Amino acid sequence: xxxxxxxxxxxxxxxxxxxxxxxxxxxxxxxxxxxxxxxxxxxxxxxxxxxxxxxxxxxxxxxxxxxxxxxxxxxxxxxxxxxxxxxxxxxxxxxxxxxxxxxxxxxxxxxxxxxxxxxxxxxxxxxxxxxxxxxxxxxxxxxxxxxxxxxxxxxxxxxxxxxxxxxx
Length: 168
Description:
- The protein has helices at 15-22, 62-75, 95-107, 123-133, 138-162, and strands spanning 3-4, 28-34, 38-44, 51-58, 78-85, 115-119.
- By secondary structure, it is α/β, with parallel strands linked by helices.
- It has one domain (3-162): 2-Layer Sandwich (Nucleotidyltransferase, domain 5), CATH 3.30.420.
- Helix 3 (95-107) links the parallel strand 5 and strand 6 (115-119).
- Helix 4 packs across helix 5 (138-162).
- The protein starts with a strand and ends in a 6-residue tail after the last helix.
């Protein structure tokens, strides 16, 4: 697997554009919201316009988590991962972002699709507010918030990819 990052791009291209170029025709993107206890998972449609929440998996050991992700990636014909990067509000990276990068580095040792990061600041907060406004109980929110946050992250990346490019 390749981790596509801004500092590895020679032409200044955004990593998501490089990720999209790497996709085979008809492949989807999988969005991941990596938490300490769970991983929220969402998948795009084949036209890369709509993100849908899929499931939340409970984290155990890295190997088991990676196997679950790669099994789902194969099932959904995933050609790339969009991993939410939990930046601090000032844009700096704290311990959670470092943990996310370590997860990506570990996953890069496997036969996995390429991966790009997407800023996930406030994604869980936004999803939680929406669920509260929909009068969803705390218990039900707990069951869906991570996969909904993954869909929120992935939808942000898809919306970015659908905008006209300034350099095109």
